[in-house]
What does this fold into?
Amino acid sequence: MKLQFKAERAAGDQWRRVAELRLRALTDSPEWFAGNLDKESKRSEADWRKLISNIHIVIYSHEGRDVGIMSVEEAEPIRKTDCWLGGCWIEPALRGKGITAMMIEKLDEICGEEGWQVQGLGVWPDNEIAIRAYLSTGWKKRGEPLPSRSKPGQMYQIMVRELPS
It folds into this structure.
Protein backbone atom coordinates (compact mmCIF):
# COMPACT_ATOMS: atom_id res chain seq x y z
CA MET A 1 0.00 0.00 0.00
CA LYS A 2 1.36 3.40 -1.02
CA LEU A 3 1.37 5.92 1.82
CA GLN A 4 0.00 9.42 1.41
CA PHE A 5 2.36 12.34 1.91
CA LYS A 6 1.69 16.06 1.84
CA ALA A 7 4.25 18.40 0.25
CA GLU A 8 4.28 22.01 1.41
CA ARG A 9 6.67 24.79 0.48
CA ALA A 10 8.10 26.39 3.57
CA ALA A 11 7.47 30.05 4.33
CA GLY A 12 9.45 32.20 6.74
CA ASP A 13 6.98 31.71 9.58
CA GLN A 14 7.62 27.95 9.35
CA TRP A 15 11.29 28.32 10.22
CA ARG A 16 10.95 26.13 13.35
CA ARG A 17 9.63 23.22 11.27
CA VAL A 18 12.47 23.63 8.77
CA ALA A 19 15.05 23.86 11.55
CA GLU A 20 13.69 20.78 13.32
CA LEU A 21 13.66 18.68 10.14
CA ARG A 22 17.13 19.79 9.06
CA LEU A 23 18.59 19.06 12.49
CA ARG A 24 16.80 15.68 12.60
CA ALA A 25 18.35 14.87 9.21
CA LEU A 26 21.82 15.83 10.38
CA THR A 27 21.37 13.84 13.60
CA ASP A 28 20.04 10.76 11.82
CA SER A 29 22.46 10.70 8.88
CA PRO A 30 25.37 13.11 9.43
CA GLU A 31 27.58 11.14 7.07
CA TRP A 32 25.26 11.77 4.08
CA PHE A 33 25.15 15.57 4.28
CA ALA A 34 27.59 18.35 3.59
CA GLY A 35 26.10 20.29 6.53
CA ASN A 36 27.37 20.30 10.10
CA LEU A 37 25.00 19.62 13.02
CA ASP A 38 26.92 21.72 15.53
CA LYS A 39 27.11 24.72 13.21
CA GLU A 40 23.52 24.49 11.97
CA SER A 41 22.06 23.97 15.46
CA LYS A 42 23.44 27.41 16.35
CA ARG A 43 21.51 29.20 13.60
CA SER A 44 19.22 31.94 14.84
CA GLU A 45 15.60 32.48 13.86
CA ALA A 46 16.81 35.22 11.50
CA ASP A 47 19.30 32.80 9.90
CA TRP A 48 16.59 30.19 9.29
CA ARG A 49 14.19 32.80 7.90
CA LYS A 50 16.90 34.10 5.55
CA LEU A 51 17.64 30.56 4.35
CA ILE A 52 13.96 29.97 3.61
CA SER A 53 13.70 33.25 1.71
CA ASN A 54 16.75 32.44 -0.45
CA ILE A 55 16.00 28.84 -1.50
CA HIS A 56 12.98 26.62 -2.06
CA ILE A 57 12.44 24.31 0.89
CA VAL A 58 9.70 21.70 0.82
CA ILE A 59 8.38 20.01 3.97
CA TYR A 60 6.85 16.55 3.66
CA SER A 61 4.35 15.29 6.19
CA HIS A 62 2.46 12.07 6.79
CA GLU A 63 -0.62 11.86 8.98
CA GLY A 64 0.01 15.39 10.26
CA ARG A 65 3.66 14.82 11.23
CA ASP A 66 6.71 16.27 9.45
CA VAL A 67 8.74 13.36 8.05
CA GLY A 68 10.93 14.74 5.25
CA ILE A 69 12.59 17.78 3.75
CA MET A 70 14.11 18.84 0.43
CA SER A 71 15.72 22.03 -0.80
CA VAL A 72 16.47 23.32 -4.29
CA GLU A 73 18.17 26.50 -5.38
CA GLU A 74 19.67 28.12 -8.43
CA ALA A 75 22.99 26.41 -9.11
CA GLU A 76 26.35 28.11 -9.02
CA PRO A 77 27.85 28.38 -12.54
CA ILE A 78 30.58 25.88 -11.57
CA ARG A 79 27.88 23.18 -11.30
CA LYS A 80 26.94 23.41 -15.01
CA THR A 81 23.27 22.83 -14.12
CA ASP A 82 20.38 25.24 -13.69
CA CYS A 83 19.50 24.23 -10.15
CA TRP A 84 20.94 22.19 -7.30
CA LEU A 85 18.94 19.75 -5.20
CA GLY A 86 20.09 19.43 -1.62
CA GLY A 87 19.14 18.44 1.86
CA CYS A 88 16.87 15.55 0.86
CA TRP A 89 15.97 13.52 3.90
CA ILE A 90 13.17 11.13 4.77
CA GLU A 91 12.48 9.71 8.22
CA PRO A 92 14.06 6.22 8.26
CA ALA A 93 10.82 4.32 8.96
CA LEU A 94 9.21 5.85 5.86
CA ARG A 95 12.00 5.27 3.34
CA GLY A 96 11.02 3.14 0.38
CA LYS A 97 7.35 4.15 0.68
CA GLY A 98 7.08 6.39 -2.40
CA ILE A 99 8.18 9.75 -1.05
CA THR A 100 11.29 9.98 -3.28
CA ALA A 101 9.16 10.00 -6.43
CA MET A 102 6.95 12.65 -4.84
CA MET A 103 10.03 14.75 -4.05
CA ILE A 104 11.12 14.59 -7.70
CA GLU A 105 7.61 15.58 -8.85
CA LYS A 106 7.76 18.63 -6.56
CA LEU A 107 11.28 19.41 -7.82
CA ASP A 108 9.96 19.32 -11.40
CA GLU A 109 7.13 21.70 -10.43
CA ILE A 110 9.56 24.20 -8.88
CA CYS A 111 11.94 23.92 -11.85
CA GLY A 112 9.10 24.56 -14.27
CA GLU A 113 8.12 27.71 -12.37
CA GLU A 114 11.73 28.94 -12.26
CA GLY A 115 12.57 28.01 -15.85
CA TRP A 116 15.26 25.55 -14.74
CA GLN A 117 15.80 22.72 -17.22
CA VAL A 118 18.94 20.89 -16.02
CA GLN A 119 18.76 19.62 -12.44
CA GLY A 120 21.85 18.68 -10.48
CA LEU A 121 22.79 17.20 -7.14
CA GLY A 122 25.80 15.86 -5.33
CA VAL A 123 25.87 12.54 -3.51
CA TRP A 124 28.65 10.80 -1.64
CA PRO A 125 29.79 7.85 -3.81
CA ASP A 126 29.32 5.36 -0.97
CA ASN A 127 25.68 6.38 -0.39
CA GLU A 128 24.42 3.53 -2.56
CA ILE A 129 20.84 3.73 -1.28
CA ALA A 130 20.50 7.38 -2.36
CA ILE A 131 22.22 6.71 -5.69
CA ARG A 132 19.79 3.85 -6.43
CA ALA A 133 16.83 6.06 -5.49
CA TYR A 134 18.04 8.85 -7.79
CA LEU A 135 18.77 6.46 -10.67
CA SER A 136 15.25 5.05 -10.32
CA THR A 137 13.80 8.54 -10.82
CA GLY A 138 15.77 9.40 -13.96
CA TRP A 139 19.01 10.85 -12.64
CA LYS A 140 22.33 9.94 -14.28
CA LYS A 141 25.87 10.13 -12.96
CA ARG A 142 27.98 12.82 -14.63
CA GLY A 143 31.70 12.28 -14.79
CA GLU A 144 33.90 10.95 -12.03
CA PRO A 145 33.62 11.93 -8.34
CA LEU A 146 35.01 15.36 -7.49
CA PRO A 147 36.59 16.78 -4.31
CA SER A 148 34.04 18.27 -1.91
CA ARG A 149 34.42 21.94 -0.98
CA SER A 150 32.36 21.50 2.20
CA LYS A 151 34.07 18.34 3.45
CA PRO A 152 37.77 18.46 2.56
CA GLY A 153 39.20 15.04 1.77
CA GLN A 154 35.83 13.65 0.67
CA MET A 155 34.66 13.13 -2.91
CA TYR A 156 31.14 13.58 -4.25
CA GLN A 157 29.38 12.33 -7.35
CA ILE A 158 27.42 14.78 -9.51
CA MET A 159 24.14 13.47 -10.83
CA VAL A 160 21.98 15.30 -13.38
CA ARG A 161 18.48 15.07 -14.74
CA GLU A 162 16.65 17.00 -17.45
CA LEU A 163 13.25 18.42 -16.61
CA PRO A 164 10.79 16.25 -18.53
CA SER A 165 8.97 18.12 -21.31
